[in-house]
Design brief:
The chain has helices spanning 17-38, 50-73, 99-115, 123-149, 157-178, 199-217, 223-238, 243-263, 272-289, 293-299, 301-319, 336-342, 347-371; strands spanning 184-187, 191-194. The chain has 372 residues and is mainly alpha-helical. The protein has one domain (17-180, 189-371). A hairpin with a 3-residue loop joins β1 and β2 (191-194). The protein starts with 16 loop residues before the first helix and ends with a helix. The model is unreliable at 1-8 (pLDDT under 50).
């Protein structure tokens, strides 16, 4: 079993949850304004990325003021696992299932914003929204089971993966049926890979991988919401050939930031599996529908490292297991953010560092797109 012993946290004096939230909000706002200025969008404000991003942020932040107290009254308090960092035990009772208000709100706004100019809903945005809601429902069921049983045991891993696979397969079937070029994967500098039937297992794997990667990343106050907001805005900036998906990405980035208003350290609500699985499915759906899987891989780099850290920890523990049945640990604790926590980093320092990593990955992705 992993050790839960930790050293005194190294806490920069200037760093608080509110200040980190403010810096993130300012950074994302500057990025969206810079893109709109470069693309000459300001003559028609409804075509900017900044306006839908701001509207989504404001609506979700205000909505949360009513929903978060309601979740508290409904006693949806998070059950903190005892084998995790001991500093997290004080978070027990914080309302969870926060995904139930920011995910549907963001999706509804994206559907309205993309459908208004044409007078009809975008089929691609609609299909991705259904995929996201499917994963959100799986996450809600898992969260509900945890709360009902008052333990960390929710849905079984097999049932959860089966349900995720069904949703991903249905989305893949729609995508291949509606877009003859869906099986072609593109990359910067004109590289093209026509995968043919091999695209099907890939398209089923990507939502499942992204969903569970975001779920593992959701372990610290503001970590999953903030990194997802950065990754979604980065994807939105490069999706110039897909205006509907561009709006979907930036609206959901704003929704994540609106949720982060209530989720930054110290968190007043957690997104739960309801939110984290949905965000992973959202990233996957956008990447698959836009043919930007390589860009998705880059901006999701941190999420996959978090997943790989868990896989590596388990494999190493099993490989080094002795006659006493006890193995060695590759990391102090997995996922990776807990490794840094137990090494003496404060929660805020881990979160701010991970924000910086995803921001750099987003910048790299944008540069590759513009230079290609």
């Amino acid at each position: 079993m992993p050790s839960t012993k930790t050293t005194a946290a190294i806490e920069p004096r200037w760093l608080t949850g509110q200040r980190l939230f403010g810096l993130l909000a300012i950074g994302l706002l500057i990025a969206s304004i810079a893109y709109d200025t470069r693309a000459n969008h300001w003559q028609q404000p409804l075509q900017t990325l900044t306006l839908p991003w701001l509207v989504s942020f404001a609506i979700v932040a205000v909505l949360g003021m009513a929903v978060v107290p309601l979740l508290r009254r409904l006693k949806t308090g998070q059950i903190i696992r005892e084998d995790g960092p001991q500093s997290h035990l004080q978070k027990s009772g914080t309302p969870t299932m926060g995904g139930i208000f920011f995910v549907p709100t963001g999706l509804s706004l994206a559907l309205l914003w993309t459908g208004f100019p044409q007078g009809k809903l975008s089929p691609t945005v609609g299909a991705i929204a259904l995929l996201v809601l499917w994963y959100a429902a799986i996450g809600w069921w898992d969260d509900w089971q945890v709360l009902r049983r008052k333990s960390n045991k929710g849905l079984s891993a097999r049932l959860r993966l089966l349900l995720e696979g069904i949703g991903a397969a249905l989305f893949c079937a729609w995508l291949v049926g509606s877009d003859p070029t869906a099986t072609v994967v593109t990359a910067p500098w004109g590289w093209v890979w026509p995968l043919g039937i091999a695209f099907i297992p890939l398209a089923i794997f990507v939502p499942m991988a992204e969903g569970n990667a975001l779920n593992l990343t959701d372990g610290l106050d503001g970590l999953a919401g903030g990194t997802a907001a950065i990754a979604l805005l980065a994807l939105g900036i490069i999706l110039t050939a897909h205006p509907d998906l561009q709006i979907l990405a930036v609206v959901m980035s704003g929704a994540c930031l609106g949720f982060l208003w209530h989720n930054h350290h110290p968190a007043r609500v957690f997104m739960g599996d309801t939110g984290s699985l949905a965000l992973g499915a959202l990233l996957a759906g956008i990447g698959l529908a836009s043919h930007h899987l390589w860009e998705l891989l880059i901006v999701s780099g941190l999420f996959f490292v978090e997943s790989l850290s868990v896989i590596a920890q388990v494999l190493y523990y099993k490989a080094t297991k002795g006659s006493d049945g006890v193995g060695k640990r590759l990391l102090r604790m997995a996922p990776l953010h807990h490794h840094f926590e137990l090494g003496g980093w404060s929660e805020l320092r881990v979160v701010s560092t991970f924000y910086g990593v995803v921001a750099l990955l987003g910048l790299l992705c944008s540069l590759l797109h513009w230079l290609a």
